[in-house]
């Protein structure tokens, strides 16, 4: 794609980021949530000019870049002791979520195997990204993909509001809230947003936990591909497919975390990196807000919503109970 085509949308992202920071300085509301709100107001109000769409669609790149840079501010020694516990909670919640969604979809609500699998992947791993990844391996229909994606986006919007409020009412510590958001919310963007809305430490824990969860997407894709290949001989799976779906920016995050832990970065370097990733997050969340299109959410049927709500309630309650006992 020609860089010139990206300029109008990038200019809109930059304007939204600057405006978000200005509004936050006056109102005291977290700037990342304001950025998402501005993006949502734009797309559901006056609408996005067609010439701006290519640039706005780069928001996932800026989010990944910001997460990579954030690795420099994280000391791996801080999370070493809690790593095993967090990983155990992640695996348990993923397993419970997928099992609940699959059971409800197939045996109670009659949603069909493939739609149930897409909902399970989206709720269990990493939102719409997991929906798309699994859809490619099980040959799901376009309407099934759209249904599952819309349901996930609906809960992304809801949890953006509910989680910070719930964390405050429950008096959760930064660590517990961050891990809880990372292990039970769906998509990476909203997890990072609510984490940093709660506190800097909560944001780092939320991001680290979510990245650990995202890294398991290859296992889930492989499992679903193997299951559906048995009944549909057309199904194919390769190392190239798994690598294409793996969130490779996780490797950059870990690399910078290792470098930061070794003490390579000076305080001045860390300050510059912190400033850079905070601006990248703002760019990303303005664009993320433009993905929240109310007319699409209204078209989502009630049965997928009920299925995902039940799984979210169970996974969220289970993980919170476990985390409050451990931390």
Task: Walk me through the structure.
It is built from 17 helices and no strands. It has helices spanning 3-27, 31-44, 53-56, 59-70, 76-108, 113-126, 128-138, 142-170, 174-184, 188-198, 200-214, 217-231, 239-245, 249-261, 267-289, 294-298, 302-326. The mean pLDDT is 84. 82% of the residues lie in helices and 0% in strands. The chain is an all-alpha fold.
List keywords for this structure.
327 residues, 17 helices, mainly alpha
Beta-strand content estimate? under 5%
Distance, first to last CA:
48 Å
DSSP, total strands: 0
Principal-axes geometry comes out as globular
Q: Number of helix segments?
A: 17
Mean pLDDT value: 84
Radius of gyration over alpha carbons?
19 Å
Q: What structural class do you assign from the helix and strand content? A: mainly alpha
Characterize the main sheet.
none
Helix content: over 70%
Report the order of strands and helices.
HHHHHHHHHHHHHHHHH
Low-confidence residue ranges? none
């Amino acid at each position: 794609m020609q860089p010139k085509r990206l300029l109008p949308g990038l200019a809109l992202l930059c304007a939204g980021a600057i405006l978000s920071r200005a509004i936050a300085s006056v109102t005291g509301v977290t700037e990342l949530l304001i950025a998402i709100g501005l993006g949502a107001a734009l797309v559901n109000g006056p609408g996005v000019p067609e010439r701006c769409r290519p640039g706005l669609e780069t928001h996932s790149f800026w989010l990944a870049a910001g997460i990579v840079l954030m690795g420099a501010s994280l000391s791996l020694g801080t999370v070493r002791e809690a790593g095993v516990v967090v990983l155990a909670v992640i695996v348990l919640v993923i397993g419970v979520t997928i099992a609940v969604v699959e059971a409800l979809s197939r045996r109670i609500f009659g949603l069909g195997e493939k739609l149930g699998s897409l909902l399970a992947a989206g709720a269990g791993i990493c939102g719409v990204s997991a929906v798309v990844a699994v859809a490619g391996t099980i040959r799901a229909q376009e309407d099934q993909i759209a249904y599952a994606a819309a349901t996930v986006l609906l809960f992304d919007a809801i949890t953006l509001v509910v989680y910070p409020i719930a964390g405050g009412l429950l008096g959760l510590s930064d660590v517990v809230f961050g891990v809880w958001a990372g292990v039970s919310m769906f998509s990476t963007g909203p997890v990072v947003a609510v984490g940093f809305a709660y506190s800097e430490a909560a944001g780092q824990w939320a991001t680290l936990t979510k990245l650990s969860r995202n890294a398991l997407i290859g296992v889930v894709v492989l499992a679903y591909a193997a299951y559906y290949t048995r009944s549909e001989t057309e199904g194919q799976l390769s190392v190239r497919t798994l690598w294409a779906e793996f969130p490779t920016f996780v490797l950059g995050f870990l690399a910078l975390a290792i470098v930061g832990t070794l003490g390579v970065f000076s305080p001045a370097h860390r300050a510059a990196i912190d400033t850079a990733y905070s601006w990248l997050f703002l760019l990303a969340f303005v664009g993320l807000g433009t993905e929240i299109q109310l007319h699409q959410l209204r078209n989502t049927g009630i049965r997928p919503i009920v299925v995902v709500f039940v799984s979210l309630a169970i996974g969220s309650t289970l993980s919170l109970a476990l985390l409050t006992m451990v931390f």
